[in-house]
Amino acid sequence: MPTKAKQNNLVRGFVPYPETPGEEYMSENMRAHFTNILNKWKQELMEEVDRTVHHMQDEAANFPDPADRASQEEEFSLELRARDRERKLIKKIDETLQLIEENEYGWCDSCGVEIGIRRLEARPTATLCIDCKTLAEIKEKQIGS
C-alpha cells in the first residue's frame, strides 16, 4: 500500500525533485518544481469544476417521484460541497504561488525553519514544518476534547 505522500504523487503525477549536493534550499529550480506542481494541481481542480457544471446541467431532471428528486438534490449538494472545498483549495494554491513569486515559500510560518522538500511535495500548500504542525494538532486535540 503506497504511503499518503506517494498517493499524492501518483494523483498529481510529478517526479520527486532530484536534490543535488550543496544546492541552496528553495533555489530557482526548486521554486520552478513547486510552481509546476501547484499549477498542475490547480488545473486538475479547475477541470473537475467544469466537469461538475456539465454533469449537473446534463443530469438535471424534474423527477415526478419525490424520492428520485430528493436523491438527485442530495447528489448535487454533495458535489457542490466538494467543489466549495476545492474552490478554497484553489485560493490557497494561488496564495502559495504568490509566496513562491515573492521568494517566501518553503519556510515555517511559526518557527522559520525549512519545511522540507518532501513535506512540500506531499502537501505543497503547507505553511508549517512537521514539528510545528504536530504541536498544533496536539493543542487542537487538547482544546477539542
Automatic annotation (TrEMBL):
<keyword id="KW-0862">Zinc</keyword>
<comment type="similarity">
    <text>Belongs to the DksA family.</text>
</comment>
<dbReference type="GO" id="GO:0008270">
    <property type="term" value="F:zinc ion binding"/>
</dbReference>
<comment type="subunit">
    <text>Interacts directly with the RNA polymerase.</text>
</comment>
<dbReference type="Pfam" id="PF01258">
    <property type="entry name" value="zf-dskA_traR"/>
</dbReference>
<dbReference type="InterPro" id="IPR037187">
    <property type="entry name" value="DnaK_N"/>
</dbReference>
<feature type="binding site">
    <location>
        <position position="108"/>
    </location>
    <ligand>
        <name>Zn(2+)</name>
    </ligand>
</feature>
<feature type="domain" description="Zinc finger DksA/TraR C4-type">
    <location>
        <begin position="104"/>
        <end position="136"/>
    </location>
</feature>
<keyword id="KW-0479">Metal-binding</keyword>
<dbReference type="InterPro" id="IPR020458">
    <property type="entry name" value="Znf_DskA_TraR_CS"/>
</dbReference>
<feature type="binding site">
    <location>
        <position position="129"/>
    </location>
    <ligand>
        <name>Zn(2+)</name>
    </ligand>
</feature>
<dbReference type="InterPro" id="IPR048489">
    <property type="entry name" value="DksA_N"/>
</dbReference>
<keyword id="KW-0863">Zinc-finger</keyword>
<feature type="domain" description="DnaK suppressor protein DksA N-terminal">
    <location>
        <begin position="31"/>
        <end position="100"/>
    </location>
</feature>
<dbReference type="InterPro" id="IPR012784">
    <property type="entry name" value="DksA_RNA_pol-bd"/>
</dbReference>
<dbReference type="Pfam" id="PF21157">
    <property type="entry name" value="DksA_N"/>
</dbReference>
<comment type="function">
    <text>Transcription factor that acts by binding directly to the RNA polymerase (RNAP). Required for negative regulation of rRNA expression and positive regulation of several amino acid biosynthesis promoters. Also required for regulation of fis expression.</text>
</comment>
<dbReference type="InterPro" id="IPR020460">
    <property type="entry name" value="Znf_C4-type_bac"/>
</dbReference>
<keyword id="KW-0963">Cytoplasm</keyword>
<protein>
    <recommendedName>
        <fullName>RNA polymerase-binding transcription factor DksA</fullName>
    </recommendedName>
</protein>
<keyword id="KW-0175">Coiled coil</keyword>
<feature type="zinc finger region" description="dksA C4-type">
    <location>
        <begin position="108"/>
        <end position="132"/>
    </location>
</feature>
<feature type="binding site">
    <location>
        <position position="111"/>
    </location>
    <ligand>
        <name>Zn(2+)</name>
    </ligand>
</feature>
<feature type="binding site">
    <location>
        <position position="132"/>
    </location>
    <ligand>
        <name>Zn(2+)</name>
    </ligand>
</feature>
<dbReference type="GO" id="GO:0005737">
    <property type="term" value="C:cytoplasm"/>
</dbReference>
<dbReference type="GO" id="GO:0010468">
    <property type="term" value="P:regulation of gene expression"/>
</dbReference>
<dbReference type="InterPro" id="IPR000962">
    <property type="entry name" value="Znf_DskA_TraR"/>
</dbReference>
